[in-house]
């Protein structure tokens, strides 16, 4: 690695404790934000229900009974946005450039996963594959494919424009995103996958019943379906590994150096082009994994599904403070909770006049607009100067 | 480099005598005449007509570029666009529809060019303003209005003309409302926020059928009124037999042509005014511009609002021409479509934006279907082309390629703005001048 030569030999090896602190510190921060935003949003809906309950007596019951399920839904959405947002934020940290095509990398991750599942089905071995192996296979293939794809896209459409005015690479990225959408559609519709590619999976087992929510005389079991569990576990592992790579390895140091000051980093002997390609590789792999996990959870993927999650993930990245890795995770989780709450409660509070699912998108974009106006540096923006 | 200059000079040697002096008059007149005769004698929809039609449109470009007297260009333009094309349209309605569509998009591209090209603000939600105009006329001219308040009825179709102004004002207001909060943002953030705004408008239009049915949701608004034809009786009195549909086609063609003309005049005047220069200063160096005393936010807001108002007017025309609008008409792809026109032609260049709009519309409506037909024939002959592949369905791919290729190889566009070109190719132009000097000596 070119980086090796650049690190002074006197750099002391960090103790295990320090490394653990660097790696799990952000995870602790993330946990704090998860608990904090879930608690404050729950408080808000409860207060709203209290205000409205004189008019509708069973309002409080209806609100409380779905609350745990909404929190789980928010968590899953949050991790989805967080894994995609990491790709945006890493690239932005290094190049100060919005990689608009990242949403499409996510989509292609989903399509690759569907292809793997399809191949297993046509080989007739799907049933004999253990669920865990299947999940790993789908995720790893999607990660590899999307990582390479992201690097290729960078090489073709962004690298020639590195010194151009800011808007030029952005327009090129928009073009790339459209190209990827239609290429995916072309491939999918000319193969047996079809426009809406289905995920066929081995049996993941029964939903796990966490506990029973009892409010008044009603009782509803709170369940966690195995697909959600897979999503949460896989996303958490990826976040921890990424934190380790960025904060505790030489490669991570080179990435951070490039993000901080590209000319100086290159004077220190860091191969900047290589680091940028690696950033795209990591971001693309994460996006691909997110796509595969998303496909596993939802069950179908289509070539146009990348745009909206991509935009929301960008919102999440900005919400957390773009360029900041922990910020992207935090922003993703906060946005996920917010969206889940809007989707679940808007129609309850407006007596069914506004459909929550439709206006959840509006909520996400309104947050983006408000945020960019009032606090463009995001939640963790200025506070932590760690930048990638 | 050397080959390109020599081929250029060869090209120049051929075109120079034809673009100035008395020969130019003859050449242009002959060119337009030849194309017109070819068009009028062969009004079927086939490949040869397509080619002649493109050549015919190109003649306007050639005339614009050549050094002939202004009155001659005007005469040519009036004859070709005001007489020959509409008459050809009565023979083959398909082409007049293409021309009208191209005109609508030309006005939109000119409007977006003010925002993106002049002021350097990348607006990815431009179609939202278009939607505002279209929905305004759609709602007020149909019984949809009674859904909002049963006491109200649809307005008289003749209100279409004042509604052009109302559409303009609505676009202006929406532009200011969106612009006020977001224009402090840096370029790339602005792009994403406007994109989000465009999506929000579409989602809202899609869902605003409850609690009060304002937009009729995803069903869209149908049977939108067309304005009464003004001089139809006089035309009928002349003994010309024409059904309403034909007349409406001609009507919208002329209406769009007039609006495009007005737009060009307004935009050209703006560009060379104090405001235009202020925009340019902000685009090139915001800090320096502010230091010069240019009111940054007010100027950006003005660009945004002016661009939006063109879209508002065209929205009214579009709704009335299409008779039917629904939320997917105003999706992101439409915004990108208009952006592709501006970028293809050249950001900041008025003829460029027009050229881009015409090329992209023709690609969309004429050339892609033509390629599709050829592919289908090849397929029938046994060529290995997947049956699902239909080029007309792959506009995203086309626009995507267009954007990427233009950005990498020719970011200044096909017909660049003079000053823009100078900025982007300072060194090359200096070299060219040096060589020209040497040659002169």
- Unreliable segments of chain B (pLDDT under 50, ≥5 consecutive)? 1-5
Kindly provide the radius of gyration of chain A, computed on alpha-carbon positions and rounded to a whole number of angstroms: 22 Å
The first-to-last residue Cα distance of chain A is 19 Å
Tell me the number of strands of chain B. 0
Describe this structure in words.
The complex is a heterodimer of chains A (388) and B (441). Chain A is mostly helical and 388 residues long. Helix content of chain A is 72%, strand content 5%. Chain A contains 13 helices and four strands. Chain A has helices at residues 2-6, 16-52, 59-95, 102-123, 131-158, 167-190, 226-248, 250-260, 262-267, 272-298, 307-320, 325-349, 356-374; strands at 197-198, 208-215, 218-224, 300-301. In chain A, the strands form two sheets. A two-stranded antiparallel ribbon of chain A has the order 1-4. In chain A, strands 2-3 form a two-stranded antiparallel ribbon. In chain A, β2 and β3 form a beta hairpin. In chain A, α2 (16-52) packs across α7 (226-248) and α3 (59-95) runs parallel beside α7 (226-248). With 441 residues, chain B is mainly α. Chain B has a domain at 106-348. Helices cover 75% and strands 0% of the residues of chain B. Chain B contains 19 helices and no strands. Chain B starts with a helix and ends with a helix. At the A-B interface, α6, α11 and α13 of A face α9, α15 and α17 of B. Chain B: Its main location: membrane.
Top keywords for this entry?
heterodimer, A: 388 residues, mainly alpha, ABC transporter involved in vitamin B12 uptake, BtuC, two-stranded antiparallel sheet, two-stranded antiparallel ribbon, 13 helices, globular, disordered C terminus, B: 441 residues, 19 helices, 75% helix, disordered N terminus
Give a quick precis of the structure.
The complex is a heterodimer of chains A (388) and B (441). With 388 residues, chain A is mainly α.
């Amino acid at each position: 690695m070119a980086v090796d030569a650049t690190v002074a030999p006197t750099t002391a090896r960090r103790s295990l404790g320090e490394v653990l602190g660097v790696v799990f510190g952000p995870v602790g921060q993330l946990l704090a934000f998860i608990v904090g935003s879930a608690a404050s949003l729950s408080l808000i809906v409860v207060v709203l229900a209290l205000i409205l309950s004189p008019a509708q007596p069973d309002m409080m019951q209806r609100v409380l009974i779905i609350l745990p399920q909404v929190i789980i839904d928010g968590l899953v959405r949050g991790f989805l946005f967080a894994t995609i947002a990491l790709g945006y934020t890493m690239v932005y940290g290094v190049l100060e450039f919005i990689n608009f095509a990242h949403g499409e990398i996510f989509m292609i991750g989903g399509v690759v996963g569907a292809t793997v599942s399809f191949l297993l089905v046509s080989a007739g071995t799907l049933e004999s594959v253990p669920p865990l192996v299947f999940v790993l296979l789908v995720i790893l293939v999607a990660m590899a494919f999307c990582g390479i794809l992201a690097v290729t896209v960078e090489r073709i459409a962004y690298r020639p424009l590195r010194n151009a005015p800011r808007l030029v690479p952005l327009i090129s990225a928009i073009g790339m995103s459209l190209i990827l959408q239609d290429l995916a559609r072309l491939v999918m519709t000319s193969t047996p996958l079809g426009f809406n590619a289905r995920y066929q999976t081995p049996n993941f087992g029964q939903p796990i019943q966490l506990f029973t929510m009892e409010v008044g005389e009603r009782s509803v079991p709170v369940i966690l379906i195995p697909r959600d569990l897979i999503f949460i576990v896989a996303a958490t592992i990826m976040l921890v590994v990424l934190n380790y790579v960025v904060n505790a390895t030489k490669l991570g140091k080179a990435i951070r150096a490039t993000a901080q000051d590209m000319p100086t980093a290159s004077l220190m002997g860091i191969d900047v082009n290589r680091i940028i390609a690696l950033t795209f590789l990591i971001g693309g792999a994460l996006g691909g994994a997110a796509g595969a996990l998303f496909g596993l959870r939802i069950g179908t993927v289509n070539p146009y599904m990348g745009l909206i999650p991509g935009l929301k993930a960008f919102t999440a990245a900005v919400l957390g403070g773009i360029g900041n890795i922990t910020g992207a995770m935090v922003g993703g989780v906060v946005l996920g909770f917010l969206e889940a709450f809007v989707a679940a409660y808007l129609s309850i509070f407006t007596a069914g006049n506004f459909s929550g699912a439709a206006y959840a998108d509006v909520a996400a974009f309104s947050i983006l607009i408000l945020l960019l106006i009032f606090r463009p540096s995001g939640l963790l923006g200025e506070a932590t100067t760690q930048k990638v | 480099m050397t080959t390109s200059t020599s081929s250029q000079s060869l090209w120049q040697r051929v075109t120079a005598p034809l673009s100035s002096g008395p020969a130019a008059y003859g050449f242009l007149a002959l060119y337009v005449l030849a194309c017109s005769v070819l068009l009028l004698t062969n009004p079927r929809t086939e490949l040869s007509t397509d080619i002649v039609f493109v050549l015919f449109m190109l003649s306007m470009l050639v005339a614009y570029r050549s050094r002939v007297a202004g009155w001659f260009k005007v005469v040519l333009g009036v004859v070709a666009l005001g007489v020959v094309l509409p008459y050809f349209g009565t023979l083959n309605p398909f082409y007049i529809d293409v021309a009208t569509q191209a005109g609508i998009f030309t006005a939109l591209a000119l409007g977006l060019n003010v925002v993106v090209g002049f002021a350097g603000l990348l607006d990815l939600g431009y179609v939202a303003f278009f939607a505002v105009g279209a929905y305004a006329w759609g709602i007020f001219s149909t019984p949809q209005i009674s859904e909002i308040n049963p006491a109200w009825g649809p307005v008289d179709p003749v209100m279409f003309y004042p509604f052009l102004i109302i559409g303009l004002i609505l676009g202006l207001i929406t532009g200011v409302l969106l612009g006020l909060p977001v224009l402090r943002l840096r370029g790339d953030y602005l792009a994403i926020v406007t994109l989000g705004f465009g999506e929000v408008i579409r989602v809202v239009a899609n869902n605003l059928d409850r609690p009060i049915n304002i937009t009729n949701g995803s069903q869209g608004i149908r049977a939108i009124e067309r304005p009464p034809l003004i001089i139809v009786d006089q035309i009928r009195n002349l003994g010309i037999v024409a059904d309403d549909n034909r007349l409406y086609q001609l009507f919208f063609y002329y209406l769009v042509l007039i609006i495009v003309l007005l737009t060009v005049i307004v935009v050209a005047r703006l560009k060379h005014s104090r405001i235009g220069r202020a925009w340019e200063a902000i685009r090139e160096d915001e800090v320096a511009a502010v230091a010069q005393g240019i009111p940054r936010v007010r100027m950006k807001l003005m660009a945004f609002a002016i661009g939006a108002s063109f879209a508002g007017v065209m929205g009214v025309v579009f709704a009335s021409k299409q008779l039917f609008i629904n939320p997917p008409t105003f999706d992101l792809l439409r915004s990108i479509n208009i952006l592709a026109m501006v970028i293809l032609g050249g950001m900041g260049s008025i003829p460029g934006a027009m050229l881009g709009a015409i090329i992209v519309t023709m690609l969309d409506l004429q050339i892609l279907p033509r390629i599709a037909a050829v592919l289908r024939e090849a397929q029938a002959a046994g060529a290995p082309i997947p049956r699902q592949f239909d080029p007309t369905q792959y506009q995203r791919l086309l626009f995507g390629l267009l954007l990427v290729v233009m950005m990498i190889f020719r970011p200044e566009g096909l017909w660049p703005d003079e000053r823009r070109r100078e900025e982007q190719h300072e060194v090359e132009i200096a070299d060219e001048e040096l060589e020209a000097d040497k040659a002169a000596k």
